[in-house]
Amino acid sequence: MHRRLLLLGLLRQHKMHGYQLNEFIERDLSFCAEVKRPTAYYLLEKLAEAGYITEEEEERRGGRPPRRIYRITPRGEAYFLELLRENLRTYRRVTFPGDMGIAFIDALPPHEARELLEERYAQMREMLERIQQISGHAGAPRLVIEHHITHLKAELNWLEEVLASLAQEEESAGEA
Amino acid sequence: MHRRLLLLGLLRQHKMHGYQLNEFIERDLSFCAEVKRPTAYYLLEKLAEAGYITEEEEERRGGRPPRRIYRITPRGEAYFLELLRENLRTYRRVTFPGDMGIAFIDALPPHEARELLEERYAQMREMLERIQQISGHAGAPRLVIEHHITHLKAELNWLEEVLASLAQEEESAGEA
DNA sequence: TTTTCCATGTAACTCGTTACATGATTTC
DNA sequence: GAAATCATGTAACGAGTTACATGGAAAA
Q1: pLDDT-based confidence at B59, cuts 50/70/90?
Q2: What share of chain B is helix, strand, coil (3-state, %, to 5)?
Q3: For residue A90, which of A49, B52, B60, B155 sits 20 to 30 Å off, Cα-Cα?
């Protein structure tokens, strides 16, 4: 449902065609939204069938496929608000696939585990920097960026503690 | 892949049948792992086909279906380590469906948005408390619990800021 | 001249979930 | 006597992704 919410929310701001919509999502929202192109086209079709948006063909010069311009309808606006309320109201639990590795971390010698997690750590830092750079960027909603920054900082903190405890294990193993 | 990692990781510790495996996951790991029963059965079948685990039927008194006891094989052990290394090494980005609502929060009057988010906030607190209570619990891996606690606290902090900024908007709207 | 951009769409597939089905045994 | 427990399995569905297909126009 959050993908529909996204599409409706964007169409509420401007009429757009699918390609445009997808470009915007990829360029400006890829850090927080996952909607692949075929999915977007598919959902637009569904939303149009349901009467939440209208589809208007705009002929293009050259043999190009005509653009299909989508606009939100009053019913779509109502639906958008419904989805929005539902989304704001409910907390959806996150699961971290990366936790499975942590759960079985003892299966590896501490120094190897540390090396591997160090790689993960570097990727997380990179991600944090990339997100911090979006900050000025128009289009990307400020609160969401801040959310991701908060989140990533917490993740980094936690991983640092894990790494520290691994380092300690290594030490005490070295003594023995 | 992280589901396979989980199953192999558990079978590495004890031989088990599917029902037992599923019970353990639901009871002790539901806070961090999502594997539904049919999925578990399905994956066990696949892992057995691939030779990573062996299947042994144990007849049961009464008309009950025989238990299928699974044990990890040496190849399975190697595969487990492969998956484990891969899992530890790579950071997988998280997306929050709840961010979509935040992105369009201005579509609602601040007081309504605040009320809705207040509900979300309550659910998050509940979740945090539930996880803090697992802490003593055997079976659930300590680091993963701590991860979730860290995560949830960061989420709560961030939401508190959002709520505060909404409260401010309400105030300045009240003045006008 | 080759690559990239525009703009759509479809088909096949993966992964996972829900819902349904079975059947004896123990517990309330 | 009804309900929960044990223990499996299958079928249908849903959501989303990847990969494939088209075809001219503009840019390199």
Answers
A1: confident
A2: 70, 10, 25
A3: A49
pLDDT higher than 90, residue A58? no
Chain A residues whose CB is inside 8 A of the B106 CB are none
Q: At residue A53, what are phi and psi to the nearest 5 degrees? A: -140, 160
Give yes or no for a contact between B141 and B25, defined as CB atoms under 8 angstroms apart. no
- Identify whether residues B113 and B170 lie together within a single domain: yes
Question: Angle CA(B151)–CA(B154)–CA(B158) in degrees, nearest 5?
Answer: 140
pTM: 0.93
Nearest to residue B116, comparing CAs of A166, A81, A19?
A81
Do B82 and B106 lie in one domain? The reply is no
Question: Residue B123: is its pLDDT beyond 70?
Answer: yes
In chain A, which residues from 42 to 71 place their CB closer than 7 Å to nucleic acid strand C?
42, 45, 60, 64-68
Structural domain harbouring A63 = 2-89
Percent of chain B with pLDDT over 90: 85
Rama region for A65: left / alpha / beta (φ>0; ψ in -120 to 50; rest):
beta
Query: Stated in angstroms, how far is B35 CA from D11 C1'?
Result: 19
State the pairing for strand pair A16-17/B53-58: unpaired
Cβ contact B15 with chain D strand, < 7 A: no
- Which of A89, A109, A129 lies at the terminal end of a domain, its last residue? A89
Dist CA B68 CA B170 (whole Å): 61
Residues A103 and A83 in one domain: no
